[in-house]
Structure formats: structure tokens, C-alpha cells
Amino acid sequence: MSALLEVEALETAYGASQVLFGVTFAVQHGEVATLLGRNGMGKTTTVRSLLGLTPAFSGSVRFRGERIDRYTPDRIARMGLALVPEGRQIFPNLSVRENLLAFAANRNGSTDPWCLEAVFDLFPRLAERVRHMGNELSGGEQQMLAIGRALMTNPHLLILDEATEGLAPLVREDIWQCLHQLSSRGQTILVIDKYVERLIRLAHHHSILERGQVVWQGDSAQLAAQPALWQRYVGV
After folding, report:
1. What is the mean pLDDT of residues 154-178?
2. 210 and 185 in contact (C-beta within 8 Å)?
3. Domain that holds residue 71
4. Residue 162 and residue 170: Cα distance in Å, rounded?
5. Number of other residues whose CB lies within 10 A of the CB of residue 169
6. pTM of the model
7. Rounded to whole angstroms, how far apart are CA atoms 32 and 190?
8. CATH code for the domain of 74
9. How do residues 75-133 score in pLDDT, each as one tens digit?
10. Total of domains in the chain
11. Measured between alpha carbons, how far is 46 from 95 in angstroms, rounded to an integer?
């Protein structure tokens, strides 16, 4: 079986400024994969290229065996690729319930799809705040809502861009526990985050980006055995 997501020699630019230089990696069905690297190394641009938001000018992206790098963002989303974006981007003037229902779909054809009750089981705090508007939630609650909103689409691939950024330690722990639960359910996930020690425990495969290029790939055991490597490319 081919990988769920296959990225090959991706090159992307903003105007005359090239950001990605031949990025290649894959995400297998049912695995948690990461994109690691310091800020400004091309991680978010890679995600934007996967979603069609900043189309690549060279290379290819295959999702579920189909080439998607010339598809529109809405078509890519309908195929079952969901993003929890950096900055959350929930609807501030909609309630928690409305934010979740606005995206409800069963894009992976699950026999046990994500629904309101399932999201509330995962994040009980959202159940307590179900009638509150998005702008009335704390940062941690907004992050939970952003994850729940993505899950309500029942995606084949869930992408999280800096999902623990700026959160209090206890809330951050809630997010990590959520990701472990999703992994145990077989959800395929691509994570961008800076907490390498936690990612080593969560993820199966890692790719490190440096100046728009993949400079290292390997599994968690290999990454754990080379702390100098991730201190070099990921440490602040």
C-alpha cells in the first residue's frame, strides 16, 4: 500500500522569494509524523503547499494515491485533509456548538464518526462551555475547539501546526494526551511542534527542515539517540 501522503521535491516561493527547495517526505496510514525545525525554516509553508493555500511551482503532492498539488484548497479539504492552524482561527462570534457543527462531515467514511458527543468526551471542558462564544474562551479552550472542529470533518489526515504554542503547561499536557488518544484510535497525524521530547514519545517518523530542505529523516528511536542533532536543528 502506498503512503497516505507523498510529498516529492516540493519547491514553493512567495513572489521572488523561494522558501522550499525540494522538500520530500511521506506520511504512512495510521502513523504520527512530524515536521521539525526552527521558526522560518519552511514548516508552515510546507503545510500551506499541501493544502493548496500557497501552491508549489515544482514537485508533487499525492494524497490517497491522487495528485493534489494543483487542486483548490476546498477540494483538498473535501478529500479528507484537515488543518488545526497556528493561531487557532476559530469563529469568535459563533458558539462552541456552532463552531463544531459548521464543519461536520464524514470525509473518511467512518462507521463511528466524530460527532459532538465524541468531541465533548475528548474535551470535557468544551461541553461545559458549549454555549459560549469563541471569543469568550481561554487560549487553551480555543485550541481544544480548533482540534475538535478539525475532527468533526472526520479527516483521513489531521495536521496540527504549533498546537501547543503559548499554552499553560497543564493545558499543553491535555493536548498531548489528546494526541496520544487520537493515535491509539489509528488517526493519521502530521504534527509541527518544538517539544521534541514529547514528540519522540508520540510520533513514529520525523523529518527535520533547515532553510527549506529536509536535512534528516528517521524514527523516534533514531532521533532519541541523537540529541545533538535535534539540539542543532530544533533547539533555540
Report:
1. 92
2. no
3. 1-79+195-236
4. 16
5. 7
6. 0.94
7. 6
8. 3.40.50.300
9. 999 999 999 988 778 999 999 999 999 989 999 999 999 999 999 999 999 999 999 99
10. 1
11. 31
